[in-house]
Amino acid sequence: MRMTSTKSRRRGGVSAEAMRDEEEWVPPSYPKSPEEKQQLRQVIESSHDSKLRMMFGNLSPKGLEKVVEAMFCKLLAKRETIIKYGDEGDNFYIVRKGSFDIFAFRKIRGAQAEEEDGGMVKVFEARQGFAFGEAALLYNAPRSATIIAREDSEVWCLERRAFRELVIRASEQKFKEYTEFLKHCDVLQELDVESRSPPSQRWWMRKTSRVRRSSFSKGGMTATCSSCCQGRLWPASPVRRAKSR
C-alpha cells in the first residue's frame, strides 16, 4: 500500500481544467489488502458524511471498485497541515484514522473577513469516515479552508485527475441518463431545461442519489426500471428475454 507524507510537491496555480476525451487516461491502482479494500468500500457506502453518498452513490459496482483501487493512504503528524487556504486542490480525502480541524474565514456582514484580520475560525472537526477537499476539485477553485491534523492521523486520498474522471464524469453520465425520466417527477416540474444542466449539477447529484434501479423477471422476460423520490417507475433499459440454457 502506498504511503506518502504531505511534504510531497503541490501544484502551483489554479487553471480552468478541461477534461478532454481524446486524452488517453489509465486509472491508477495502488496495492491494498482485501481487508483495506472492504474497509474503504464500507466507509464510502455507509458513512455518516452525506458528501460521500452524494458523490459516490451513483457509481456502479465496477465504478466504485475503480475508485477504491485508485485511492492511496497518506500519514500525517499531529498539527500537520493537509490543506492550506488558497492552494490549488490536489486530492480528495477520506479520514481513515485520527481527526482534523477545519478552519475557514468568518463572515462579516455577509462578506468574507480579510486574512490580515485574523478572521479564520474553526468550523468543523472531521473524524474517521468523514471526507473533505471535494469543493476545489468540483469547481476548479482554490482551497476555501485550512485543515490541520489534531493528532497523528491517516487519510485515504484520491488524486485530482482520478476524482474528475472516476467521480465527476460518472456523475455527468448518470445526469444525462436520469434527466429524461426525472422530468416526470412532480416535485421537479418547476425546473426548466437550463436548471437541469450544469452549474446545477451538484444539486442534481443530490436528487439523483435518491434514484434506485430494480430488475423484475417474469415468464423469461427481464425489465430494469428506475424509481425516484415519489416511488414512480420508468424503464431504465430495454426489456430483455432471458437466455436459454
From TrEMBL:
It comes from the Eukaryota. Residues 1-38 are annotated as: Disordered. Pfam families: cNMP_binding (PF00027). GO terms for molecular function: cAMP binding; cAMP-dependent protein kinase inhibitor activity; protein kinase A catalytic subunit binding. GO terms for cellular component: cAMP-dependent protein kinase complex; cytosol. SUPFAM superfamilies: cAMP-binding domain-like. Residues 55-184 form the Cyclic nucleotide-binding domain. Gene3D superfamilies: Jelly Rolls (2.60.120.10). This is Cyclic nucleotide-binding domain-containing protein. It comes from Effrenium voratum.
